[in-house]
Amino acid sequence: MGLIIFLVIGLIAGALASYIMGRQQDLLMNLLIGVVGAVVGGLLAGLVGIGAYGLIGQIIIATIGAVICIWVWQRIR
């Protein structure tokens, strides 16, 4: 059940990050960006000392990580 919740959080975070960054992407790409963003956001939040509690907190951290991933990807390309 934890994997399904993680994927749903990643999908929501990827969709929000795509909307924030002004990119139109399909469902699978949003899921991929959101999952990577959840990992990156979790690592960065851990380094700063911020904890994500509850579903909303996890979505916020994952969205911030996904926005960072999209921003870095745009700078590399």
Automatic annotation (TrEMBL):
Family according to the record: Belongs to the UPF0410 family.
InterPro entries according to UniProt: Transgly_assoc
Transmembrane residue ranges: 27-48, 55-73
Top-level taxon: Bacteria
Subcellular location: Cell membrane
Keyword vocabulary terms for this entry: Cell membrane, Membrane, Transmembrane, Transmembrane helix
Protein name per its UniProtKB record: Transglycosylase
GO CC terms in record: plasma membrane
Membrane topology: Multi-pass membrane protein
Short name of one Pfam family: Transgly_assoc
Membrane listed as a keyword: yes
